[in-house]
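Action item from last meeting closed. Structure (322 res):
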């Protein structure tokens, strides 16, 4: 379930309470009048079944609470209550299938911000990838995959395309388009220094066959990108962080970028171009998979998506949702 906390203008509290009382997916409703100071108003709290959250948020926002008060929504880790169980049963749909769009938009918007932290993480990941290529170290390559923060903007771009949120799409593209060149330039400078010191040689890179998967583009390059993108988006909408780690170590976006820099500095241009191709395949595949996952999942608690229609058609609703 999700915990809803609303600071409501006093003249709209009664209508807000009526909306929450009549929704079958809402329970544990409490009202504290006049306790909110900034902004001033009443405090209304409730627990909401995840699959009912989109409708509840839309109804609450229609009262103008966002402009004159505030809405906070967060997960509830443990709920021991028959009333909560009834709310989950009465809400249409399945909690695991529900996409809370306001929550997802907020999370992906934060992950797609172009800031010093994002650039730093991407730069460190590219440096680790370059070191992994130079030392023929798959372990270091995996470390670069985990550190790389590029999935955030890619997921945000998928959400933006589905929701037609062009501002978020532009924000995501800018984050990638600016951060990657900065990270690659820094990695290029470091690689040149390593080459001058004799740490990187053409022979060492050519003979590093254990990391050939980084630049070799094949049919499974797209397949892995699609599967990883699908798993990553599912992990976001269902809050399965462990699955997201698996996504990070499945795709070769950052390693491909690091390999391209190393290959270019030692004149291995064909490998550099192949690495860029691998990078492009991974970026595009992740976004496509994210869009497909969001399009196939129910858009609200009423099971309007293809998955909901499929479940109704084969009679699984009672088994899966009760």
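Sequence:
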């Amino acid at each position: 379930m999700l915990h809803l906390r609303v600071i409501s203008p006093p003249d709209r509290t009664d209508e807000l309470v009526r909306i929450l009382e009549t929704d079958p997916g809402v329970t544990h409703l409490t009202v504290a009048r006049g306790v909110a100071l900034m902004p001033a108003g009443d405090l209304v709290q409730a627990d909401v079944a995840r699959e009912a959250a989109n409708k509840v948020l839309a109804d609450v926002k229609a009262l103008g609470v966002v402009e004159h008060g505030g809405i906070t929504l967060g997960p509830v880790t443990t709920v021991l209550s028959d009333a909560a169980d009834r709310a989950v049963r009465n809400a249409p749909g399945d909690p695991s299938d529900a996409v809370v769009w306001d929550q997802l938009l907020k999370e992906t918007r934060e992950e797609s911000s172009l800031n010093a932290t994002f650039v730093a993480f991407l730069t460190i990941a590219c440096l680790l990838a370059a070191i992994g290529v130079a030392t023929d170290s798959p372990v270091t390559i995996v470390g670069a995959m985990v550190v790389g923060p590029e999935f955030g903007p890619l997921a945000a771009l998928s959400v933006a395309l589905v929701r037609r949120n062009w501002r978020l799409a532009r924000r995501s593209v800018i984050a990638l388009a600016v951060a990657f060149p900065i990270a690659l330039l820094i990695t290029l400078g470091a690689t040149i220094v390593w080459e001058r010191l004799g740490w990187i040689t053409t022979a060492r890179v050519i003979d590093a066959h254990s990391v050939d998967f980084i630049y070799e583009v094949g049919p499974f390059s797209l397949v892995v990108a699609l599967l990883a993108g699908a798993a990553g988006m599912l992990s976001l909408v269902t809050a399965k962080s462990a699955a997201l780690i698996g996504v990070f170590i499945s795709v070769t976006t950052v390693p491909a970028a690091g390999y391209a820099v190393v290959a270019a500095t030692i004149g291995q241009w064909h490998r550099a171009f192949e690495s860029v191709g691998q990078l492009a395949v991974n970026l595009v595949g992740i976004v496509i998979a994210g869009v497909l996952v969001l399009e196939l999942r129910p858009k609200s608690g009423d099971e309007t998506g293809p998955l909901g229609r499929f479940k109704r058609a084969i009679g699984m609703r009672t088994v899966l949702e009760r």
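Note appended to the action item: The domain at 2-91 is CATH 3.30.70.260 (Alpha-Beta Plaits).
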